[in-house]
Write a structure and sequence with these properties.
alpha+beta, TATA-Binding Protein, six-stranded antiparallel sheet, 2 helices, 29% helix, 36% strand, UCP028291, DUF2218 domain-containing protein
């Protein structure tokens, strides 16, 4: 099986006023557990949760665009919750945020 056959991807949007700030805070927070990266020019954070699980978050005018890839659909739903709880923690003045997810 190829990686595409064993992975599950969803895209999401977290509606918020300060997406770049929250992504930067998440990069700093999760950098203690994994090799996160941040592209200042694009407002993009990359979170390699494991060899098979990643999240890419990009600042958009309306909020944080999220691409989440995991090994299966059940794990993807679980990781959406992890991401939502962490973003809400840093966006506490706006939280709870509204999240829109679409399976790919």
């Amino acid at each position: 099986m190829t990686e595409a056959e064993t992975s599950f991807t969803a895209t999401g949007l977290a509606l918020c006023a300060k997406p770049e700030r929250y992504i930067q805070q998440l990069v700093s927070h999760w950098s203690h557990k994994m090799a996160t990266s941040y592209d200042d020019g694009d407002g993009m954070g990359v979170f390699p949760f494991s060899d098979t699980e990643t999240a890419i978050m990009t600042a958009r005018p309306e909020g944080i665009a999220i691409t989440l890839t995991t090994g299966d659909a059940e794990r993807n739903v679980h990781m959406r919750g992890v991401i939502e709880r962490h973003i809400d923690r840093f966006a506490f003045r706006e939280a709870p945020l509204t999240y829109e997810w679409k399976d790919q």
